[in-house]
């Protein structure tokens, strides 16, 4: 029997993200971020922690918190912007566009974000940790005020055209979950830093680290109290993005308990146990799909399992950058 090769141009049925669940997940994730930022900025070593490093290049913890606040401000700002005139993209089209960005486009976009973040962080520098905390709280308040009455069908502008509010909120959930994980990693680094920031910083960071709810599924010692539905939505969005950017049926990617997708061009599996399987936990998948974790590193650390000669995602990750 001849092998079946799915067309790489066949459009997958778009997954529907329940708008009410997305809004509830965003509200919960922002609430957890509020608590973390408040604890961090009122600690005795807040200045030292805010000046500490993150895994995002030259960004400090202050820059990261400021960027998180700017991400929340994006909703009210875009709702107040003039009606968009560009093409209306759904989430699949947006994800496909992410995969088609050239290295130059990625660098240019990252540069714009870095400059805007640096300018906002510099404006808050003289106010100390209190100014950072106040800015984040005000941004979260503006976000909450805009979220309630916003119609899901309203179009808002994005870099490449327009998107409905319902779909745009899924991208805000992605931003919140991924950067909350970045913040957790930075706090973990502070806990492990010993005397490098002074004796108060690790203890203060440990206080932030232990605040909140129980660790989420798949979390390590740097756990952030992610909302379960927030994790589920982001895992599924990124899994769908992989299937959109690397279409096919030769590899099955499993992220229990939230997602299973098939991807990568080649012989399509139709029955029994798939010959090529990749499996990992939700947070590891999110880190892989957003470029926080390298595929080879994940294999070395045994945080991902890959069986079968085609079960190599190193060439198709990350999904978004």
Chain-wise SSE layout:
Blueprint: H1 19-41, H2 46-50, H3 61-80, H4 91-100, H5 103-124, H6 128-147, E1 155-158, E2 161-164, H7 165-191, H8 200-210, H9 228-245, E3 251-255, E4 259-263, E5 277-280, H10 282-289, H11 295-300, E6 304-307
Parallel strand pairs: 3-5
Antiparallel strand pairs: 1-2, 3-4, 5-6
Helix pairs in contact: 1-6, 1-7, 1-8, 1-9, 3-5, 3-6, 3-7, 4-9, 7-8, 7-9, 9-10
Tell me about this structure:
Helix content is 53%, strand content 8%. It is α+β, with helices and mostly antiparallel strands. It has a domain at 19-216: dinb family like domain (Four Helix Bundle (Hemerythrin (Met), subunit A)), CATH 1.20.120.450. Strands 4-3-5-6 form a 4-stranded mixed beta sheet. The protein has a two-stranded antiparallel ribbon with strand order 1-2. Strand 1 and strand 2 (161-164) form a beta hairpin. The longest helix has 27 residues, at 165-191. The radius of gyration is 20 Å and the shape is globular. The termini are far apart.
């Amino acid at each position: 029997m001849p092998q079946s090769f799915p067309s790489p141009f066949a459009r997958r049925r778009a997954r529907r993200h329940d708008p009410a669940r997305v809004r509830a997940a965003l509200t919960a994730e922002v609430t957890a971020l509020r608590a973390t930022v408040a604890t961090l900025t009122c600690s005795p070593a807040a200045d030292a922690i805010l000046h500490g490093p993150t895994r995002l290049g030259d960004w400090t913890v202050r820059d990261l918190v400021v960027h998180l606040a700017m991400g929340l401000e994006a909703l009210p700002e875009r709702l107040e912007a003039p009606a968009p005139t560009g093409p209306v993209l759904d989430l699949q089209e947006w994800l496909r566009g992410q995969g088609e960005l050239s290295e130059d486009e990625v660098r240019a976009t990252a540069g714009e974000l870095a400059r805007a973040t640096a300018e906002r962080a510099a404006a808050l520098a003289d106010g100390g940790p209190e100014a950072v905390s106040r800015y984040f709280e005000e941004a979260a308040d503006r976000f909450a005020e805009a979220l309630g009455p916003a119609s899901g069908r309203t179009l808002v502008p994005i870099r490449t055209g327009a998107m409905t509010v319902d779909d745009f909120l899924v991208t805000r959930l992605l931003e919140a979950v991924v950067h909350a994980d970045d913040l957790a990693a930075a706090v973990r680094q502070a806990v492990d830093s010993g005397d490098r920031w002074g004796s108060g910083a690790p203890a203060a960071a440990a206080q932030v680290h232990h605040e909140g709810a129980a660790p989420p599924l798949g979390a390590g010692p740097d756990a952030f109290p992610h909302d379960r539905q927030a994790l589920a939505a982001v895992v599924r969005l990124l899994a769908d993005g992989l299937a959109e950017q690397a279409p096919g049926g030769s590899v099955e990617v499993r992220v229990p308990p939230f997602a299973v997708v098939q991807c990568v061009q080649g012989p399509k599996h139709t029955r029994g146990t798939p010959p090529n399987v990749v499996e990992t936990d939700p947070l590891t998948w999110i880190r892989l799909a957003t470029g926080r974790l390298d595929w080879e590193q994940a294999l070395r650390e045994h945080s991902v399992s890959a069986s079968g000669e085609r079960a190599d995602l190193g060439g198709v990750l990350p999904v978004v950058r």
